[in-house]
Structure formats: structure tokens, C-alpha cells
Prior knowledge:
The chain is of the alpha/beta class. 36% of the residues lie in helices and 16% in strands. The strands form 4 sheets. A 5-stranded antiparallel sheet has the order 2-1-5-4-3, with helices on both faces. The protein has a 5-stranded antiparallel sheet with strand order 8-7-6-10-9. A hairpin with a 5-residue loop joins β9 and β10.
Amino acid sequence: MDPTRAEPAHIVTAAELREHREEAERLIAIARSGLQALFRQVAGQNYVLLLADAKGVTVHFFGDPRFQVELRAAGLYLGSHWSENLAGTCGVGACIVTGEAVTIHQTDHFGLSHTPLSCTAAPIYDTCGSLAAVLDISLLRSPAPKASQNLAMNLVRASARRVEMANLMAMTRRDWVLRFSSTPEFLEVDPEAAVALDGSGRIIGVTGAARGFLAPEGSGLPLIGQRIDALMDLSVDDLPDLMRGRPTEERVLRLKDGRGLFGHAIAPQAAHNLTRRTAHDLPGALSSFAGPDPALQRLLAEAARLAPTRVPLLIAGETGTGKERLVRAIHVCAAGERPFRHVVCAGLDAARLADTLSGLADPATLFLDGPEDLGPEAQAALLSALSGPGELRVISASRGDLSAACQQGGFRGDLFFRLAGVTLRLPPLRHRRDFDWLLVRLLARRNAGDWQLSPAARAELKARPWPGNIRELEHALDVAVALAEGRVIDLCELPPPALSPAAPSDPDDDLHAVLAACDWNMARAARRLGVNRSTVMRRMRRLGLTLPD
């Protein structure tokens, strides 16, 4: 790049812009009303608002249409690419590199064509602490002193903070949110920072400012996964005391280092008592099975109540969804020290099955892995073994639809009803809404949580369909950790999907579940389903689905 030449603005193609906007569509929707309010404040001073994604491409824009030609030429328009490797030092690019709010004023710019501009930008972080976007407020021509942009800096920082807050609230409606400020005056209407907490008090979402309040300066302490009681003198049971109804000045939070804050807690939006049963209420072996996913939390609550009984359980789910782990968790939660016997049914004939079960102590938990793989004679032998007296607890796991096999005559009906007192269906990974929680947990297992994912790598993992479910995700992370040169795993270090090209979408797949798991990002849902975005939109219209408010 030559700083003495007036280079034209870098504008992406229409197809590229469409792709960038699709990836950012949910954030655009969340930010739009706040940015409209900000633009009304500054439009009289001829400011332009740009919302750029984490790569530096402008995906949303507010400006005076009378100056459209000048704005396009300056790159202050939709589709302009402001990364530093293309534009040199500039507001959006410097914000992406530093992760901090910056003002790049006139000759601070690298490119000669940008020196008349004054650009003030602030980062917008997602709920996992990764850079999601940059909010920029710019002038085509500004007063000479850089201090003239101090008000712009205050405005853009406040607006970015509010976008992060709105995003956190939208993403964590089923979880506790703890908002806090250094003073009590505007705590309930405009708090400075916030964290989302699961039922056990672990942090599952943050705003950018939360790191400054809770993580010691320079510590690099990751907040996601931390227990709130390790950071302040507060437990999840204390949160109701911080809700509306008490004067804000009395809602004091005490950090472990002695500092004080003022807190405002917002309860989960749960329609029924069952959904309010969270990991905090579950026995230990079940409490760590899933994160903030309402459907899974309901399933685990049911499993916890069934664990101490002798009701035979059938755990159904696709390969790699964690069926064996759930079976073992239920066994651990059951009272007593009963033995656990894991029987893999594939390849067992009647004689070998009888030998396997002959030495089984009573009482005991018998885990039948894949009963659908048993032939007719082995099914008869199993039925005979289960018909005798005793206190045998049977838990089965099936990757197929055992009830359908029973109806079609491929599996004995009398045996099916011996095995399936209750069926618990584990959702596939593409339907789960705790994907970020799961990523944090799986990475932490690999090296004490030191590994991080770049925004591009995280977006790629969240968009894949994962036909192999958690097992496939674990293998992908193992490869990425082995290939990564630093502590940040980037897109180039992720292995390609195990099935390439992607497996075709199941037309009966639960579209609502996939959209909810993708935070209603239609582009990401389309990738998970292996279809076009237009196909997703057609299915939504056919099913009467609309984007949530």
C-alpha cells in the first residue's frame, strides 16, 4: 500500500455482501432499533453510522442520502471493507486489531484518500467474549482538533454496550442474568455490564464490559465456565434478593478482592415449574451433562426423578449424542452400590448372551447397548433372562427407532415393553441450544481451558450439521488442538467435515429446533440442514414459523 496515493474504497461484491449480511442478520436485527436512535441523535451533525462484522465488512449503514455519492467514494457505505490489510490504519480496522474503542482522526489514517475523515469505532462482543462486530461513527469532514470527537467516542461506546446487553438478554431468556454497575443510579435502565448464569451459578454468557469488572487486569482469566461464587460473595440462591422490589442502593455485590458493585438480577423466562428445574437442582452426575438448553434440562429433570426407581429406561438418540454417558449418570444417581454391567448387543447370539448375563449379580444395573442389533433367538434369550425374579434394573440405549422396529415386526413386542417403561430421547447436536457451553467444556478438557476459538472458527463449528454429533465434534477439536500453532484455533486449523459433501437434509428434521439452536440465523440453519437459505424460508412459511421478537 502506498500512503501517498489516493486509493479507491474497497467494496465487496453483491454476492459477498449478501453472505456477510446473512451471517450477521441476527445481530443486525438486535442492533437496528438502537442504531436508529443513535443516528437520530447525530444526523444533524452529518455523522454516518457503520456496523461492520468481525472481518471489517460494513453490513449495516445509516447516512444522509443527499451525500450518497460522496459517502460511497469514501467507503462510508454498505459493503465497504475496512480491514487494516486493505485500508491501512482506519477506525474499524484498528478496532478489530486492538479490540478497543478508538478514534482515527484525519491524518491518523494511513491512506491519503481517508485523511479528511474522522472515524470513531467501538467493538461489539458476543456472549462468549469473541469479537462479533464493530460500530463506527464517522464524518466526511470534521474540525481539526481530535478532541472534537470525544462526544462521538462516548456515544459509540454506550451504543455498543447496549447492543451487547440486548444480545445477551435475547440469547439467554431461559437463564438468570445478573446486570451490574459501579453506581446505583441507572442500574435498572442502563447497566454497565452483565453476565448470564446457568442454574448452578456458572457463567454462560458475558458482555464485553463484564471482563473489566470481574477479571483482574492482565490476568486473561476466561469468565465463561467460572462459578459466580468464585468471583464474588454471591450464590445463585441469592439472585432473587437482587430483583426489583429493593432499592438499588441496597443491592450491593462484593467482589473477592473487596471491590463493591450494585447488582440487578433478572429471572429466567420459564412458563412452567418443570423448566425452572436447572442443573443446580440435579444430582451431580446429571448436573454436568448439558448447559442452558431447556429441552435437555427437562429431560434431565425427568431422568433424575426416575433414577432411584426400577422403571426400565430406553435412551434413544443418534450415534454420538451421549447415550452411554447419560446411562452411567442415571446409574450413579441411583441409591445403593449396585454393580453396573455394560452389554454390547451387536454380534451376540443366544448362547453368548446367556453366558454374558449368567454371572450378573442382583441387584444390579444392566446396560443393554443397541438391543436392536439382537437377532430373534437372542431376543428370546434376553426376554427369558429378564422374566425371572430379582431386582435387576435395565437401561437400554438405541440409536434407531425401537418402537418402529417393534411395529414392523423386527423386534419382539413383549421384549420391547420389558425394556421401554419410559423412553428418553436425546436431541442431536444440531438441535441443541447449549453449543457454546459445550465448546467451552470440551476445550477445557483438552488443556485446562487455555484454548480459544477465533470468531471465524467458532462460526464454522456452529454452522456444521454434525451427523456424528458430540463424538464427531470431539474428534474435530482434537485435530484442531493438535494442528494449532498458538492458543487460538483459527478456521484453517479445523479439519473438514467427516462426511464430505455434507449429508442431505432429512426433510422431517425439526426445523424449529434447528432454527432455535442456530439463534434463528437462517444462513447457519441452512448450512446445518444442508439446504439453501431459500429452502429454509419456504419451510418456515409452510410451517407458519416467524422470527422471534
